[in-house]
Design goal:
By secondary structure, the chain is of the alpha/beta class. The chain has a domain of 104 residues: Glutaredoxin, CATH 3.40.30.10. Helix content is 42%, strand content 18%. The protein contains seven helices and seven strands; from the N terminus they run αβαβααβββαββαα. α4 packs parallel to α6. The longest helix is centred in the N-terminal third of the chain and has 21 residues. It is globular, with a radius of gyration of 27 Å. It starts with a helix and ends with a helix.
């Protein structure tokens, strides 16, 4: 193929590429009559509190409390943050009905709660947390309803929150019975 023959092939290709690039540049070939797309409402993000602030808020709002017990190295804990707590329906339930608290159960840093100073480790001991992740549901008056060990999917957490906690079923039915009847096992 001679130099002239090569150019005869490449010139139309390069011209086509130049037209495509030019047509896609901002300001060129845009529709002027186009309606702007409505902005989609961003789902609200969950607000996690430390234990001291969360307890104060729960006392003030009289909401249920969800305590997410975790450690920094726990992969299932990270998976719950990434997959479970990002579920849109679960987020709506939690934002409306719960004060959310995160407790690093290995944290030895003390925080003041009333007259006491406690750490994440102290809280884990008081709640009898043996492993992570662990989700603890607490009544508005501070009484522990249930402590659920292990990584849980959004469906599971929605069932527990809506059908066990918010309905008050925990007052008359053991969690084991509820879990069996709700097919959570």
């Amino acid at each position: 193929m001679t130099v002239n023959a090569r150019w005869r092939f490449f010139v139309p290709v390069l011209a086509g590429v130049a037209v495509l690039v030019w047509a896609n540049m901002p300001g060129y070939c845009e529709e002027t009559e186009k309606d702007p797309e409505p902005e989609k409402e961003k789902p609200k993000e969950l607000v996690w509190h430390n234990f001291a602030d969360g307890i104060k808020l729960a006392d003030k709002t009289k909401k249920y409390v969800l305590i997410d017990c975790y450690t920094t190295w726990c992969e299932p804990c990270k998976m719950m943050d990434k997959y479970t707590y990002t579920d849109k329906e679960l987020k709506e339930i939690l934002l409306k009905h719960f004060v959310l608290i995160k407790v690093n159960i290995e944290d030895r840093k003390k925080m003041r709660i009333g007259e006491d100073e406690v750490s994440g480790l102290d809280i884990a001991r008081a709640l009898r947390i043996a492993g992570v992740p662990n989700t603890v549901f607490v009544q508005p008056d501070g009484k522990v309803i249930i402590s659920i060990p292990g990584m849980r999917r959004p469906r599971y957490m929605k069932k527990v929150a809506l059908d066990y906690i918010l309905t008050g079923k925990y007052k008359t039915t053991s969690f084991r019975t509820f879990a069996r009847e709700a097919h959570l096992d």
